[in-house]
């Protein structure tokens, strides 16, 4: 499919499929005698778009210059801002003809969305505050319109084909492996994404308010947020005792803000690049100081950790450790990756104590029980 560009003006209905979408945010002239900057932006996008497929450009100006429904205009802009992969803020502010008061509000709402680029001529007044927050939020900036457009298209790349409710997932999230894995599972079950709204994104963690058609029940469910993050690998390091309750398990204690008492006991584990088993070995060394040979690692399968809230999974492994290793672990100091603010302390407890004293949460307890029941 060749490159194509569709312009959608105010109050017009967006197409049902595209590879990328941008919104041209910024001041609109108050008088027909003042030329809009947006036609030049559309021309620059048309010239520079190198993706294979459709680029949709949302222009919040009426095709025929008629603005007759303020509330409808605002609602259309809100909808199309959320549909956009990139929001191009270009602010050639003129206090007499284009004061950009509404633009200031929109910038405040979108500057830290991960989807904004900002441009303004050097002589445009009253943009210092906006530029300050562009720098603080890592927003690409430029001093002219062509460079601003180029910054947006650089992040879009070739785009990605989306249709229906998929259009509401912006490229910055669409490209996340964890999102694609969750969505592939939904499609395999016959379910359809009717709508979505990004509620937060922090690094590779995200939250998406979704509207799903549930095929098996022939109904629509729209009252849940799906949380996502990369999969984790967790390892049960154990030393068998005479009974199941006397089997000793290596835990790590670490401060975690969501934990109601601050510190949580959990299994060595985490996420990272590489195969799950490689991640498992690396996390054991990082959080306990124990270096394991890959041949000692036993796989126990993969499951979601909290299927009512998060789409991520845990890859479960175990290793039987020696008495000497257990003794060294008992006397080891704090570990963790300091650059990530991580500090872990090794604590060893018998399975019976773990259960009685409720040292771990339900998901961790289940992983420990799965391993110990399987290896005995």
From TrEMBL:
Identify the keywords attached in UniProt to this record, alphabetized: Hydrolase
By its UniProt entry, which SUPFAM superfamilies does this protein fall under?
Nudix
Q: Can you name one GO molecular function term for this protein?
A: hydrolase activity
InterPro entries under this entry?
A: Nuc_deoxyri_tr2, NUDIX_hydrolase-like_dom_sf
| Protein name from the UniProt record | NUDIX hydrolase
The organism of origin for this protein: Actinomadura soli
